[in-house]
């Protein structure tokens, strides 16, 4: 990717720890090395333990793991409505610990994104001034998240943890036009021209990239953005400006 002008680039979603379903794993040093090899400046990182195991232990783990790496890796707390009770101060506590973004993983944890408790959780995240990222993997998840959280006074980052983004392109366009607080990950957009189409229809400032490494081969995700025929300004927004504005990077 050295043939392209240097652009400040933020990976909107990486994982640390051990994947319980495979032998894949990564520590902070591993992730930063891969980032250096791909000209990635920063990444948002969550613990796999917080997604697939103990939420509390995983969130503590990500804070501890990123000591000494905060210039490159921003910690994201995982929070599930399966363990959330409104009014208990859970979100405020996470904010005090230094988290600026909360991640919800309905696709991995098998809960429906349209449930009322998820909306309550999102309302507390909004009140705390934090951003929310929601990992989806199919039509149902995408639309359920949009219908549940669309129009809220907070940025909601739709993150894809499964391929086939071209299937959802027209739905993303429709949802983006209806709800101005939704932002879309294009890391799964395998169709050439798909990212350019989204840029023209909803604007590059509504788009960002997530690699999901080490669960996904990260270079293929980064290359998709560089392979698209985008203007320099569009490429800057998709690669880093969108997330930088939302998270004050």
Supply the key terms:
249 residues, TIM Barrel, 4-stranded mixed beta sheet, 42% helix, 17% strand
Secondary-structure blueprint of this entry?
Blueprint: E1 10-18, E2 25-26, H1 28-37, E3 42-47, H2 48-52, H3 55-65, E4 73-75, E5 77-78, H4 90-96, E6 101-104, H5 106-109, H6 116-127, E7 131-136, H7 139-149, E8 156-160, H8 169-178, E9 182-185, H9 194-202, E10 207-208, H10 218-227, H11 232-247
Parallel strand pairs: 1-3, 3-4, 5-6, 6-7, 7-8, 8-9, 9-10
Antiparallel strand pairs: 1-2
Helix pairs in contact: 8-9
Largest sheet: 6 strands, parallel
CATH superfamily: Metal-dependent hydrolases
According to CATH, what is the topology? TIM Barrel
> What is the molecular shape?
globular
Q: Show unreliable segments.
A: none
Please give the CATH architecture.
Answer: Alpha-Beta Barrel
CATH class reads Alpha Beta
Give the number of helices: 11
Mean pLDDT: 91
Strand content: 15-25%
Order of secondary-structure elements: EEHEHHEEHEHHEHEHEHEHH
Number of structurally distinct domains: 1
Which value, in Å, is the CA radius of gyration?
A: 17 Å
How does this structure look, described?
Helix 7 links the parallel strand 7 (131-136) and strand 8. The chain has one domain (10-247): Alpha-Beta Barrel (TIM Barrel), CATH 3.20.20. It is of the alpha/beta class. The two termini are 23 Å apart. The protein contains eleven helices and ten strands. The chain has a six-stranded parallel sheet, sandwiched between helices. A four-stranded mixed sheet has the order 2-1-3-4. 42% of the residues lie in helices and 17% in strands. Helix 8 (169-178) runs parallel beside helix 9. The protein is globular, with a radius of gyration of 17 Å.
């Amino acid at each position: 990717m050295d043939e392209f002008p240097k652009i400040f680039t933020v990976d909107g979603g990486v994982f640390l720890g051990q994947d319980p379903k495979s032998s894949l794993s990564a520590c902070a040093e591993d992730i930063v090395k891969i980032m250096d090899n791909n000209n990635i400046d920063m990444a948002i990182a969550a613990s796999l333990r917080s997604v697939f195991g103990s939420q509390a232990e995983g969130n503590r783990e990500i804070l501890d793991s990123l000591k000494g790496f905060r210039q490159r890796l921003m910690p994201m707390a995982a929070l599930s409505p399966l363990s959330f009770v409104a009014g208990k101060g859970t979100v405020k506590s996470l904010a005090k610990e230094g988290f600026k973004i909360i991640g919800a993983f309905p696709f991995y944890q098998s809960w429906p994104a349209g449930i009322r408790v998820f909306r309550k959780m999102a309302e507390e995240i909004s009140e705390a001034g934090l951003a929310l990222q929601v990992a989806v993997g199919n039509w149902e998840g995408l639309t359920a998240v949009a219908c549940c959280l669309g129009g809220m006074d907070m940025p909601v980052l739709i993150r894809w943890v499964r391929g086939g983004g071209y299937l959802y392109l027209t739905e993303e366009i429709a949802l983006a036009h209806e709800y101005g607080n939704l932002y879309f990950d294009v890391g799964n957009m395998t169709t050439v021209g798909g990212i350019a189409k989204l840029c023209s229809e909803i604007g590059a400032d509504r788009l960002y990239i997530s690699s999901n490494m080490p669960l996904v081969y990260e270079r293929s995700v980064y290359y998709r953005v560089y392979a698209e025929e985008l203007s320099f300004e569009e490429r800057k927004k998709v690669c880093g400006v969108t997330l930088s504005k939302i998270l004050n990077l």
